[in-house]
Write a structure and sequence with these properties.
The chain has 386 residues and is an alpha/beta fold. The chain has two domains: 141 residues, Glycerate kinase, domain 1 (Rossmann fold, 3-Layer(aba) Sandwich); 225 residues, Glycerate kinase, domain 2. Helices cover 34% and strands 19% of the residues. The strands form three sheets. Strands 3-4-5-6-10-11 form a six-stranded mixed beta sheet, sandwiched between helices. Strands 2-1-12-13-14 form a five-stranded parallel beta sheet. Its EC number is 2.7.1.31. This is Glycerate kinase. It comes from Vibrio quintilis.
Length: 386
């Protein structure tokens, strides 16, 4: 029997690799001779670097970069291992360098934050000979249109008086000129994939400032300022590059980082789970499988919108495979996942408990649940009669 285990992480408790190991341990109690294929997966958000490093036997690279408030922070990215071809692949989570978690709640102000550190991560990866980049957008503290990131990669920004060396959101409204002559030339020969699960444009009613600015601490007045800044940045970008970014779906992701990457590089935007499952060659691993196990910490009505269990199920159903999902908890509307190829869902909690206890016992609870799933599967497929 061949069982493919392809889950996301259980946030705050288990990495995707640890989930795989717990599930395998539980099922092996019932099927000790089974073939277990562990494929850690993610959807482009938090945990994507670790999942891809684990899935490809890659390495995690740690380095100090500039945080969103200008202070040094310790961040990491991944260099992937077991992949076809000769090109070194780096996977970067923007939030590692420029995430909202680096900014205390009382200091959150997207007028002041910069994505400069994300550019430093990209530069570090290029210096490690990466020629393919996977960049996960999400969880950012910034609304600078990715200008900070571009500055770290050699682009120069000017207003009437001086050069702006580390642009933040409030600086964009004063921009008069963008000089791209110093942009790192290695980017032009890179394949860059942006893991992006939103289709917001850079500006307008559904743009970065209006929709995401308040979540990062922007007041109504701040939103107007930031909107005007992104509009100025977008117009200058379109003049300099000839690429349309202001109204392009996805350009407003991560405070406009989508616009910077698609405007100044050859990057393409794709759903995060699609990028990850393709990179780890999930479809190949599923060949001749008898059962697929996926899951994440919470399954609800949002799971069908680009989350890992739905992405795994979609690929599994192309091969007509049964899919069971395991979850820490179920939220409102979780039944929607039955329409996207998940055949059954099991929660791992054995009873009511406080969140700290649930997080602390997640591995054991997951192992026990996986054993019970295997026992139920074996019973359902038994030819014996009672």
């Amino acid at each position: 029997m061949k069982i493919v285990i392809a889950p996301d992480s259980f946030k705050e408790s288990l990495s995707a690799q640890q989930v795989c190991e717990s599930v395998r341990t539980g099922m092996a109690r019932v099927w000790p001779a089974a073939e277990f294929i562990c494929v850690p997966v993610a959807d482009g958000g938090e945990g994507t670097v670790q999942a891809l490093v684990d899935a490809t036997q890659g390495q995690r690279i740690e380095t100090q970069v500039t945080g969103p408030l200008g202070d040094p922070v310790q961040a990491f990215y991944g260099l992937l291992g077991d992949l076809p071809g000769d090109e070194q692949t780096a996977v970067i989570e923007m939030a590692q360098a420029s995430g909202l978690h680096w900014v205390p709640p009382e200091q959150r102000d997207p007028k002041l934050t910069t994505s400069y550190g994300t550019g430093q991560l990209i530069l570090h990866a290029l210096n490690h000979h990466a020629r393919r980049l996977i960049i996960g957008l999400g969880g950012s503290a910034t609304n600078d249109g990715g200008a900070g990131m571009l500055a770290a990669l050699g682009v120069r920004f000017f207003n009437d008086d001086k050069e702006i060396t580390r642009p933040a959101g409030q600086d964009l409204v004063t921009l008069t000129h963008i000089d791209i002559s110093g942009l790192d030339p290695r980017l032009q020969s890179c394949e860059i994939q942006i893991a992006c699960d939103v289709d917001n444009p850079l500006c307008g009613e559904y743009g970065a400032s209006t929709i995401f600015g308040p979540q990062k601490g922007a007041s109504e007045a701040d939103v107007r300022l930031l909107e005007n800044g992104l509009l100025k940045f977008g117009r200058l970008t379109e003049e300099m590059t000839g690429k349309m970014v202001i109204n392009t779906p996805g350009s407003g992701a991560a405070g406009g980082m989508g616009a910077a990457l698609t405007g100044y590089t050859n990057a393409t935007l794709k759903p995060g789970v699609e990028i990850v499952t393709t990179t780890v060659r999930l479809a190949e691993h599923l060949a001749d499988a008898d059962l697929v196990i996926t899951g994440e910490g919470r399954i609800d009505h949002q799971t069908v919108h680009g989350k890992t269990p739905a992405g795994v199920a979609a690929i599994a159903k192309q091969q007509h495979l049964p899919v069971i999902a395991l979850a820490g908890c179920l939220g409102e509307g979780y039944q929607a996942v039955y329409e996207c190829g998940i055949d059954a869902i099991f929660t791992i909690l054995p009873g009511a408990m406080a969140l700290p206890q649930a997080l602390a016992t997640a591995a054991d609870n997951l192992t026990d649940t996986a054993e019970n799933v295997a026992r139920l599967w074996q019973l359902a497929n038994s030819k014996s009669r009672f």
